[in-house]
Amino acid sequence: MNKLNCQKLSQIISEAQLLHRQLKETLTQENVQAAKKKESEMLETLSFFERFKFQLYEQIKIIPMRQRLYSKLLDEKNENTIRSIGSDGNNRIIFQEWNKNTGQKLKERVMEKQVEAQGICLSHDGKYIYTGQEEGDDSSGRIKLINTIRVWDTETGECKQILKGHNYFVVSIIESVDGQTLFSGSYDGTIKIWDKSSGTCMQTLHGHEGHIQSVLEGKDGKTIISDADDGTIRFWDKSSGKEISKIYVDEKDTPEEERVGISKIIESSNGREMIAALSDGRIRIIDLQTLMFREIPSTYEEDRNSKFINSRMKELADIIETKNGRTIISMQGQQIFIWDKETLELLNTLSNDSGYISKISELQDGKLLTAYYDGLGIWGIPKSPTSPKKLP
């Protein structure tokens, strides 16, 4: 599709969105039935154009970092500011804020201690970073390795608190919606619930038979959801800590050595499905009522000339569901794959020459934000037929 058509389709999408907003504003009791029918037609049209807009996406902006970082988290502070957290070659955790329009670095804070973080999280208010790491402890007179969660101040870079209790790598940390609690998942197979203010471990959840990969707080605010390389997704009651249910992504009687693991899970925006990235690169969309699933195939292409074949190379670097719930976006290597969630059709494959992509996020305006080792990329519909603009 040429650039003229790109601009025309972008204009149609904007007009459809405007008409939809106007229609909702003029809805009255007298014409409610007719208006709802019109709204349904408009939503269907809008869905059609939003679905195909991704076929026009290109990398429209590159923000160079001028340092080699492995970005572990991307975030949007407001419509003009984006945030990234990463680690450099010296295991320093670095927090940065950028003006997404000019590429200007607005803030950078280096945390005061070097740690090799396995899990990382930013508090909802942006004031704290939580990292999980293995580090030396000499409090007993002898140095031994322990696994901790550190709480960092993004303004000063100081470590405010150290939480201890896990026996293996802490790879997933999240903050509760109300900001009062932390949930952590570890390779020791447990999930811990922490009181954020005191740093006290309030509960430890047992049940997984493998390394936990990710932990979520359910959209209902009452459950914790976790996944592990034992091939299960488990649901826990947040108050009691009891396991409510579990889902096997393979048949329950599949031999352990053949069982596929899970690298990441997402609860869908409608709350009725789980989206699971499997360790072999496939994506499964699981209906929580029927437990039936639909599957997106792996996009991994083996390099037959390579002497080093690692099973972890098949894993997706990241997956997200777009905010409108209609699209799933996955990443592998230097490519981004955009899938229609309903039909499972591959809408577009975006490639770049900026290096391997480590993280992806959707911005409020619908554009995509990606992280490379030495920069950030913004993807959207180009306004003119030019190459990506590399900001100074």
Protein traits:
mainly beta, Methylamine Dehydrogenase, Chain H, 2 helices, globular
How is the topology of this model organized?
Layout: H1 3-25, H2 32-53, E1 58-64, E2 70-78, E3 81-87, E4 93-99, E5 105-110, E6 117-122, E7 128-137, E8 144-153, E9 159-164, E10 170-175, E11 181-186, E12 191-195, E13 201-205, E14 212-217, E15 223-228, E16 232-237, E17 243-248, E18 262-267, E19 273-278, E20 283-287, E21 293-296, E22 318-321, E23 327-332, E24 335-340, E25 346-351, E26 359-362, E27 368-371, E28 375-380, E29 389-390
Parallel strand pairs: 1-29
Antiparallel strand pairs: 1-28, 2-3, 3-4, 4-5, 6-7, 7-8, 8-9, 10-11, 11-12, 12-13, 14-15, 15-16, 16-17, 18-19, 19-20, 20-21, 22-23, 23-24, 24-25, 26-27, 27-28
Question: Summed up, what is this model?
Answer:
With 392 residues, the protein is mainly beta. It has helices spanning 3-25, 32-53, and strands at 58-64, 70-78, 81-87, 93-99, 105-110, 117-122, 128-137, 144-153, 159-164, 170-175, 181-186, 191-195, 201-205, 212-217, 223-228, 232-237, 243-248, 262-267, 273-278, 283-287, 293-296, 318-321, 327-332, 335-340, 346-351, 359-362, 368-371, 375-380, 389-390. α1 runs antiparallel to α2.
Describe the structure.
Helix content is 11%, strand content 44%. It is mainly beta and 392 residues long. The protein has 2 domains: 1-56; 57-390, Methylamine Dehydrogenase, Chain H. The strands form 7 sheets. A 5-stranded mixed β-sheet has the order 26-27-28-1-29, with no helix packed on it. Strand 6 (117-122) and strand 7 form a beta hairpin. It is globular. Residues 303-311 have low confidence and may be disordered.
